[in-house]
Amino acid sequence: MVRLSTYVVPAVAIALLVGLTPPAPGPAMASSDAIPLIIAHRGASGHAPEHTLPAYDLAVEMGAHVLEPDLQMTRDGVLIAFHDATLDRTARGPSEFCTGPVRERTLAEIRECDVGSWFNERFPERADPSFEGLRVVTLDELFQRYGHQVRWYPETKQPEENPGMEEALVELIHRHGLRDAAAERGQVLIQSFDPASLERLRELDPDLPLVQLLPRQALDNRTAWEVLEAISHYARGVGPNHTLVDEAFMAAAREWGLFVHPWTVNDPTTMDRLLALEVDGIFTDFPDVLAQRIAGASPAR
Ligand code: G3P
Ligand code: CA
Asked: Is ligand 1 within 6 A of the CB of residue 70?
C-alpha cells in the first residue's frame, strides 16, 4: 500500500472530497524561459539585509530571474516581505512596535522599525552604513517596483496563523495584472510548506501555478516517487531542501511532471552538483555566484 506523505495527504484528501481535478496540463514556464532559474532568496540576501529594497535591487542587477518574498501579514491585513513570524531577529526600534509577532502589529507600527541594522551586526564584514534605517516593504510595493520585469516566488508563511493571507495574495496578483502571465508562463509561482494553503489558493484561482516545499526530513519514511506522485495532483513544481535532490528524486520529478527548485544553496560545489542533475532552478542568497556557476556549466538547456 502506498503511504502518502504527511505533508500531502491533507491536500489530496481535500481535493478528492471536493472533486477538484489535478492541475491543467501545460508548462508552468514557457519553453523559451531561462533554465535553470536564478531565484534570489529573500532578494540578494547574502549581500544586503533580506527582504529590503537594496536586496531586491541588487538581485535584479545581478541577473536573478526570480525574486522570492516570504509573506507575513500585519494586524491590519497587509502582506509584507518578511521571513519570521516575529520581529525580533531582523527589526530594531521601539520594543512596543519592533518585537513580538508580526500579526500583532499594524503596518504603520512596523514601519517604525529599522530592518537593516541587524545585518551590519550579524555580518560586520559585509556591513554598509546605508543599510541602517531601512524599512519593511509590502508585496504591493514590490509588485509596483518590479512588476512584469521579473518573475515572482511569494511564499505563504505560517498560513494557519494568518487567515486571509491567500485571498490577499491572489487579489494583489490580479490587481497588478500578473494573473494571466502567472497562469500562462509561470511569471508568479506560489510556494508553501503547507498543502492546505496551496489548496486554498487553488480554490481561489485554479490556474495559478503552485509549488510544494519539502523540508529536509520529507523523505525520511517515504520514497521520492510516492511523495512526488501525490504532489503532482495539485502542484506544478516542488521546492525541496537541496539535500533531498539526487538522481532518484529527479527521475521521480520528471515522471510526475514536476519542476524542481531546491533551496537554499550558497556553496558553489553544491550548486555545481545540482546543475549537473539538471534542476530547473535554485534558490540562493548569492545570485551572482549562481550566475557564474551556470555560465561555467554545460550549455544552456
Ligand atoms: O522557500 C524556499 C526556502 O526559502 C524555504 O525556507 O525558511 O528560507 O523560507 P525559508
Ligand atoms: Ca522562503
From this structure: yes
